[in-house]
Amino acid sequence: VTIAAEMAPPFRRASRLAKFREEYAGTPASAALTVLLVGGAAYVLWRLLRWAVLDATFAGDAVDACREHVGACWSVIALRYRLILFGLYPFEDQWRAAVGGLIALATVICACIPWFWRASHMLAVWVGGLLLFFLIVRGGVFGLDYVPTSDWGGLTLTLFVYLSVIACGLPLAIVIALILHDGAGMLVRLVRFVVDATRSLPLVTILFAAVVVLPFVVSSELIGEKIYRVIIGFAFFFACYQSENIRAGLQSVPKGQREAGKALGLGYWLITGRIVLPQAFAAAMPATINQFVVTFKETSLIAIVGMFDLMASAQAAYTTGELQPYHKEVLLFIAAIYFAGAFSLGRYGAFLERRMATGR
Amino acid sequence: MPQAYGRAVRRRRIETVIILAVLAGFSLLLWHAWAEMRRQGVIGNFDVIFEMTHWDLSSTVLPHSASYPYWKTLAVAVGNTFFVGIPAIAFATIVGVTLGVARTGPNKAASTVAKVYVEVFRNVPAILQVIFWYAVLLNGPVVAKALSLGDTVFLANRGLFFPWPRMSLVQTASIVAALVAGLVWLIAARIARRRGRRLMSGRMAAAALTIFIFLVALPFVTAEYEVPVRKGLNFRGGGHITIEYMALLVGLTFYGAAYIAEIVRGGLNAVPLGQIEAARTLGLSPAAIFLLVRAPLALRLVIPPLSNQYLFLMKGTGLGIAVGFAELFQVTVTSINQTGKSIDFLVVMMLIYGAINFTISKLMLVANKQLSLRGSG
């Protein structure tokens, strides 16, 4: 009895100070590292703050004034934001490109809300969103002037290509995954080869091949405009990666689920559509969201095959005129846009994972 | 149940017909495309790759001249692809492992810095990062105002200039001999281990390692270094890498490092806590626990995703086209523009990328096997 009384309690809640010491200065070396890193970070942040805010020029029409300042010249953004966001879209009609961008954004947001996660709703959101986008940005109806796709550009084009790639690529990915998982014989071997070959190539080469080769495969009346060829090539590439995610999901569905469906007398399509695929999708969700993030960043590669997307329009914004010295401002501006998209999608993915983990 | 059986057979037949119809349609399309491409001359008999190039490549690691045939030019381009891809993989691994360890380490300041780095560099497209570094370097100081490090290393908008050893034959031979001997040593040690024996005692091995380092390092210490000197609008002498190369290398390294950091963090976190607690129970120091228990166990988990990342970085060299670095894709596109033989070059390029991919994934598979064989059942 006495021994037990003399012993300290086995666990003690550490005081806040002790916790702080443990985390930032557990050992002398750790303390030195903390001082070094905090000092370095403070220096970098202070330099950044001075460049980006304190010494910067913000005036909307004063690129000349930038020469007298040592800091960032955000006037360039004010001067060129239309070119960066909308590319070469006709100036007076750029509100349509802006509305198109908002529609694209709304489509993505709707697709992220669980209430829409039913085949019919999903279909309505994507088809409706793309159709609306198309009508407003392309025009030719409701008294809107027709704007050819070759004039689309900037963020609007980036978002359109992104949405189209996912809308076309996801169904294709499901088909490929089902063939690889449930198929047999030559077909599986053929598809396997095509998927593996595609995955061993850089996306830029696929895009380039699509732009160069597709006109010979399908007549030019059907896909005469370059943007469609780019989307087809990109969607195919996306499907080759995404199909592997879905296939892994399909494999994770217990065999009993399929057998239970069979016992109820359901056919292949009913079992696949109602029992297996929903579970496969749930299992593949983290990988799928990751694929969406990667694909969003990869849309910037269409600039290489001559599309005037956000990346290309930003380059145009600082290589024309006397704005060459302000390349950093322009590139950081679009980096912020890409970051916002990729980061929030990634956060959303983490949220979904937590939600699903608690749901089980 | 004959009726159900009959239905199944009928369905199987219908499916077969559909598949055959789709395949036939595809074949028809391909045949049509083939005929059309032959007619327009975009597809040849691959004899174009034996024709003379007539144009030169700028800044290649292997020598190149305009009189090379296309296949030789493509080989030089592959050399450049490796010249940027392998250092990118190496540097990204070093930076990424450091960051990944920092993120899982006990120091909160280090893990916060690593986290911010990862979030920033992972969420911005690789091509944008490459173009950013290129624009920054391109608008950097001119040669006359080059940044210098002790007047021996110079950074200007024409690239990085640094001293380069001019080795005599003896010095080169010393390095080559040491490397060959080292390779033989490694192979012999592996064979010995496979037979359950040791090649040499620990003390012997230490002595051999000292001699090896000495043989490799001595030529570098004694060699005469050629220091770059300003000459007109450029530098003369010494080593030189272009800004296109630097932008691509730095961009790929920083981007890849962010992903590798996440992979390493995942691997370290996935090591079962019981293993670490067991090591602690044995009285191992934190450093020993990390080096002897946590890191080796994490390494096994990390190899498969890491090999994917290496493949990605190797393919990422294709971004060279965005800054005009003469790697495989850029040279392929130039060749197509020069000759019009799109398909020939596309096929050759795809075969080369496929071969590179295949080699790396095989190497990583070997590494995976080597690591997983030991210990775990």
Question: If helices are DSSP runs of H or I spanning 4 or more residues, what is the number of helices of chain B?
Answer: 12
Name the structural class of chain A.
Answer: mainly alpha
Task: Tell me the β content of chain A.
Answer: under 5%
Which runs of chain B of at least 5 residues are low in confidence (pLDDT < 50)? none
pLDDT < 50 stretches of chain A: none
Main pleated-sheet profile of chain B: 4 strands, antiparallel
Mean pLDDT of chain B: 86
Order of helices and strands of chain A: HHHHHHHHHHHHHHHH
| Global structural class of chain B | alpha+beta
- Distance from N terminus to C terminus of chain A (CA atoms, Å) equals 46 Å
Which word captures the global form of chain A?
flat
Please, what is the oligomeric state? heterodimer
Total beta strands of chain B: 8
Strand order, sheet with most strands of chain B: 1-2-3-8
Describe this structure in words.
The complex is a heterodimer of chains A (360) and B (377). Helices cover 75% and strands 0% of the residues of chain A. Chain A is an all-alpha fold and 360 residues long. The longest helix of chain A is centred in the C-terminal third of the chain and has 33 residues, at 327-359. Chain B has helices at residues 2-40, 70-104, 108-122, 126-138, 169-194, 202-222, 243-270, 273-281, 286-316, 320-323, 328-339, 342-373, and strands at residues 147-149, 153-156, 159-162, 164-166, 224-226, 229-231, 234-236, 239-241. In chain B, the strands form three sheets. A four-stranded antiparallel sheet of chain B has the order 1-2-3-8. In chain B, α2 runs antiparallel to α11 (328-339). The relative contact order of chain B is 0.13. Classes of the chains: A mainly alpha (360), B alpha+beta (377). At the A-B interface, α2, α3, α10, α14 and α15 of A face α1, α3, α4, α9 and α11 of B.
